[in-house]
Amino acid sequence: xxxxxxxGVVALSSMSTLAMRWQDPRTEVRHLIDAGKYADAERVAxxxxxxxxxxxxxxxxxxGKLVEAETEYARAIxxxxxxxxxxxxxxxxxxxxxxxxxxxxxHALAVVAGYRALSKPxxxxxxxxxxxxxxxxxxxxxxxxxxxxxFDAATAVDSTNLDAQRRTGDLxxxxxxxxxxxxxxxxxxxxxxxDARALLGLARVEDYxxxxxxxxxxxxxxxxxxxxxxxxxxxxxxxxxxxxxxSARVYAARALASDSSSVDAWSLLGAxxxxxxxxxxxxxxxxxxxxxxxxxAQFYTELAEASIRQRRYANVNELAKQAVxxxxxxxxxxxxxxxxQLRLGQMTEGKASLDRVFALDPYDARTxxxxxxxxxxxxxxTIDRGRFRIVAPPEEAELLSLYIVPLLERAFDTLAVRYSFxxxxxxRLEFFRxxxxxxxxxxxxxxxxxxxxxxxxxxxMDAPSARERGSFNWGSTAWHELTHAFTLGASDFRVxxxxxxxxxxxxxxxxxxxxxxxxxxxxxxxLGSNVLRPMSGLSDGFLRPRFPEETQFSYYQASLFCDMAxxxxxxxxxxxxxxxxxxxxxxxxxxxxxxxxxxxxxxxxFDQWMRAKFAIPLRTVVxxxxxxxxxxxxxxxxxxxxxxxxxxxxxxxxxSLERALAxxxxxxxxxxxAWFLALMQRDRADTAAAxxxxxxxxxxxxxxxxxxxLEANLREKTGDVAGAMLALQRLLWISPYDPQIHVRLAQLxxxxxxxxxxxxxxxxxxxxxPSDELDARVELAKALAAGGDMxxxxxxxxxxxxxxxxxxxxxxxxxxxxxxxxxxxxxDAP
Amino acid sequence: xxxxxxxxxxxxxxxxxGIASPALAQRxxxxxxxxxxxxxxxxxxxxxxxTMLRTGAKARWNVPDSxxxxxxxxxxxxxxxxxRSTKEGVAAAFTTLSRRVQPGDVLLVVLIGHGSGxxxxxxxxxxxxxxxxxxYAAWISGFSRETVVFVNTASGSGDFLSVLSGTGRxxxxxxxxxxxxxxxxxxxxxxxxxxxxxxxxxxxxxxxxLEAFRFATREVARAYESTKRMQTEHAQLSDSLLARxxxxxxxxxxxxxxxxxxxxxxxxxxxxxxALRVRKASMDVxxxxxxxxxxxxxxxxxxQAIKAAGSGK
Lengths: 830, 313
Description:
The structure holds two protein chains of two kinds.
Chain A: H1 2-23, H2 25-34, H3 38-48, H4 53-62, H5 66-78, H6 84-97, H7 101-117, H8 123-136, H9 141-157, H10 162-174, H11 178-191, H12 196-208, H13 214-224, H14 229-241, H15 245-258, H16 263-276, H17 279-292, H18 297-309, H19 313-326, H20 331-343, H21 347-360, H22 365-377, E1 381-385, E2 388-392, H23 397-419, E3 427-432, H24 435-443, E4 452-454, E5 458-462, H25 474-490, H26 497-511, H27 521-528, H28 538-543, H29 550-569, H30 573-582, H31 587-595, H32 599-613, H33 615-621, H34 633-646, H35 650-663, H36 673-683, H37 687-698, H38 705-717, H39 721-734, H40 739-751, H41 755-767, H42 773-786, H43 790-803, H44 808-821
Parallel strand pairs in A: 2-3, 3-5
Antiparallel strand pairs in A: 1-2, 4-5
Chain B: H1 2-24, E1 28-34, H2 40-59, E2 68-72, E3 82-84, H3 87-100, E4 106-112, E5 115-116, E6 123-124, H4 133-140, E7 147-152, H5 160-164, E8 169-173, H6 186-194, E9 207-208, H7 209-226, E10 236-237, H8 240-245, E11 247-248, H9 257-279, H10 285-308
Parallel strand pairs in B: 1-2, 1-4, 2-3, 4-7, 7-8
Antiparallel strand pairs in B: 5-6, 8-10, 9-11
Helix pairs in contact in B: 1-9, 2-6, 6-7, 9-10
């Protein structure tokens, strides 16, 4: 009761304050602006006369009446308005919008000088100074710091100055300070939970961080201010990225209805038209942007960025170059150009572009990162073999090339037949020993969670040494990325990302048993809980995942779609889809032409297909009683088995594990029933059963190191040398760095007279820089000789003996080879 | 310019051969000092390195028991060749060895443990008072007519190098300064290098101090790399020329005149290979390979003949 009374006092007090504020027309105009009622704001500001002239200018800017706004600002300055610094910086910002950097700079410098001359600057003066510094901060840390200090001062003078805090967020975000930007926007939102601009800022932070919530947050911003052109443009950009061209077009149009002077909105409309081949709209957008910005660098930069997002790398250089030609100081366009040149393998040109950016703005973190990486890559070794160019750190270039080139040659031939397309060769594959370097190579910044990337015929990926052993399979990753080169090329870079990823995973599975994503407990649980996105919305599963596992689920889901499509229409359907995309059809049209189904039918049919495919685990992984139990019978059975194992009740555990295996026979995780059964069977010396159990894991799980090692041991023990060799070869795709695996494989290969494999393994041992390299080279010579390559064996031995003439093992082998080459001569003859 | 460099290199080879000759007939004496371990894992590591060296010295280098002294934190002095690694015990061991050595012999001293201090005050922690680098310098000063190989594998051992360096000495430390004080793994790799074929880079059946040092530094770097740790120890060596010349191992020389002659002929052929390598850059590739093959086959045949004559070497 007391609390309620207190609330009443607070409420009355707030209403009273509100009433007082509304007596001040400035406050009224600001409130109207914040609510998106720009016309009303303009009307009230006009009625306010000279004191409200700057606010009138602001309202006019928001309505796209830029010429009128500039006139009002000029009048405010002439009339020595209190906020004349604000008017002056606003004129500078309008000049910047036109692309007139010189004029913008001139106004900004004047504002900064005026600000410094003030003995007691007001909050508005601080704010104007901060905005001026922001206009000047390209390439200047001093101005970035100046802007921050001025915004902080504005907030200190008036802690309710939300504009200063919002702009602080914008400042941080412009300098890649996403965490600080989020703090600034949240500070605003604590005071004004519906602040549309702060919500827009927050959405931008979320997008920067790759979070799936960006679209929802910008929708909140638009709910607060439906006319905020920047928010509408941002929503258009998000839809464009998701390849939802209709929605992108609608949002861009709404932004223009609110502010027809938004170059951003015209650029997005133009980019959407470019992507969909709508030349009439494209020309209209370009013309409009040119009116607003006589040298529309921003327009072309937006096109170039949209092309990157849609993986149309081949178009990007031309567009970015147009932007740079229009504005040689357009650092963002130069970054786009340089980055894309590097993605196309134009290393010299890319570096030159980035050097230009660095000269203009040495504080651009992404450019600095990439230039540093390029310096480091100068030490990398390039190996040209067949249709591939491998670029890798010198310590492991030879080792990785030994394995990856034959694999990719096989992949190339397989995929060329499958997709009736051949990428330009050589295909360049770069390996990085640090995931952070791979991330910088891809994005210019660290933090990319991916393992590999394909830019067409340039592939980049983590070297197997970049991650913990068992965290990824470098063979399947390379196959995956090369598949992109085919699917992108065959569709003229028009295949949507979800399908391209789906095809890559699908091809991984076809390449080798066990490769590619497979069913997991969490995937089946997500399917059973209806958490998975429908096919028609799968792009967002990649671009804006709602929860951490969603990206992985989306890869697998997309690959299953390929399975279903092939089952429905046969092998050629995937190729036909790529051709349809190449010919300009959108996804619903592609579905219709290749599958004979509408998008809704595809969604329904695919859902049905998945539920049939996973019918058995769906019954046991997902609880039928959703009100009480969170997990299904499979999980509880596994938990029971683990408890029994820990308690030493092996027989009971075995029964539980066998039950769990029957519930989800395909599950191959190393926390699954098959793996534990294999271990128990091994301990009981039931080798045959152990091999059967462990094979369930090794044929479905591409990163199961221990399981493959166990299988190799078990098979070798039973005399199944061929099977043991296969397991050892699978291990090498998980990690090629254990010399013992290579030695073992070489010995087994020799025993089976597979001398080509023995030679490869002996070469791998040398590539690992063994402690006793000369001995390893003699072993290589032995393998070469055994395989009949006497000339190479002899050359190898001569090189060894050149370094170590006393090496008796090498001497003996050389004499033996000589004796073999000279019938009648005995190696024992003195 | 290239010719001048090559000629210089050849001169070095000849000169090294000169240093190496006495080493072939050397008598080796070994002193292994294990410091305080502090915990079982270190104790195991220290013992393992010491055992490797002791058994290697006996089995591979044919060093008699009377010339191998092992001191450790907990040894009971059951024989003059084993004892506790106190300061007095170390001093006594040097005294024992000083009576045994003859001019031209090689004394190998290996310290295994945890280091502390810096400069002349650098130490390896032993039971009781710790001798300093200056103390060790005083003890080895009595071996001026022998070659001393002093290896401190302890953490923070770097300053031993400047304190102990001198003519006729090879000083090896596991770290580059006293400041590298994290746990060192150098001991196990240096011991493994000295006592295995893997470090024998020229495959002459003997492992030189330089070969063992290079092996150990390479393997230490690999150990850090494979566990993705920043390398916190960087070994150093005082005299690479002498380190190349001082080697351990190899079968005993034969006194059979036929074998002696064959060995000499083989050594001459090996010198021809060295000379041929110097001329490589100025020769036609095919001619070079042909001559190389002729020489190495001749060397191989000499080896066979030596073996047939009943010598392991």
